[in-house]
Write a structure and sequence with these properties.
The chain is α/β, with parallel strands linked by helices. It has 2 domains: 140 residues, HAD superfamily/HAD-like (Rossmann fold), CATH 3.40.50; 72 residues, Orthogonal Bundle (DNA polymerase, domain 1), CATH 1.10.150. Helices cover 45% and strands 12% of the residues. The chain contains 10 helices and 6 strands. Strands 3-2-1-4-5-6 form a 6-stranded parallel sheet, with helices on both faces. Helix 6 packs parallel to helix 10.
Length: 219
């Protein structure tokens, strides 16, 4: 087991659906559908722009994705847009996030985040969730101007920690992110909170866990 643990932020440490949860009553019965479309489009825009050789920061993509989701789900009041976007800066951490980071730090491991998120998004969310003190690094793709799963993104972690890829354990709830990390040479753990079927058989994770508590147990 390596001494460096690098986490994806959104969906792994931070609950991306916490924003809609705070507006669920006002959003109505299609609140969850809106949130799923918002998240799907947020990621899709990052992939397609990177494939096309272009870059727009993740905050802008988050806003555009919400505009699309609101257009697709017209039953949700568009007046909620500002509240939903504001909530993205203070997303709730999953209950197992902080205990896991603290357990790793207590064992002498280094910890970090490697995220598509723009620096202001990550700084605000990490501080609001109370995670900052237990992270050695919060790394954003913004300086690189491309998104995961490009290998150059994962190299941000090895560059920061001045280590080999094999020295890093990467942790993500996104199977495509685990694929990218594994292809780069990280030992990757897939936190399969949603109990999704496995994908990318050529890039298997080191282990599949249902939550971060399982990670703390194996290290």
């Amino acid at each position: 087991m390596s001494s460096i643990f690098v986490f994806d932020a959104y969906g792994t440490l931070l609950d991306v659906h916490a924003a809609i949860a705070r507006c669920r009553t006002e959003a109505g019965p299609e609140a969850d559908r809106l949130s799923e479309i918002w998240r799907t489009k947020q990621l899709e825009y990052s992939w397609t722009l990177t494939l096309a050789g272009h870059y727009v920061d993740f905050w802008t993509l988050t806003q555009r994705a919400l505009d699309y989701a609101l257009a697709r789900v017209p039953t949700v009041d568009k007046a909620l847009k500002a509240r939903l976007l504001d909530a993205y800066f203070t997303l709730d951490a999953f209950p197992d996030a902080l205990p896991t980071l603290r357990a790793l730090k207590a064992k002498g491991h280094k910890t970090g985040i490697l995220s598509n998120g723009s620096p202001p998004m990550l700084k605000a969310a990490v501080e609001a969730a109370g995670l900052a003190a237990d992270l050695d690094a919060v790394l954003s793709v913004d300086g690189l101007k491309m998104f995961k799963p490009r290998p150059e993104v994962y190299a941000l972690a090895t560059g920061h920690f001045k280590c080999a890829a094999s020295d890093v354990t990467f942790v993500s709830s996104n199977r495509w992110d685990v694929m990218g990390a594994t292809a780069f040479g990280f030992s990757a753990y897939w936190i399969n909170r949603a109990k999704m079927p496995d994908e990318y058989p050529d890039f298997a994770p080191q282990q599949i866990l249902h939550d971060l508590n399982g990670l703390a147990a194996v290290v």
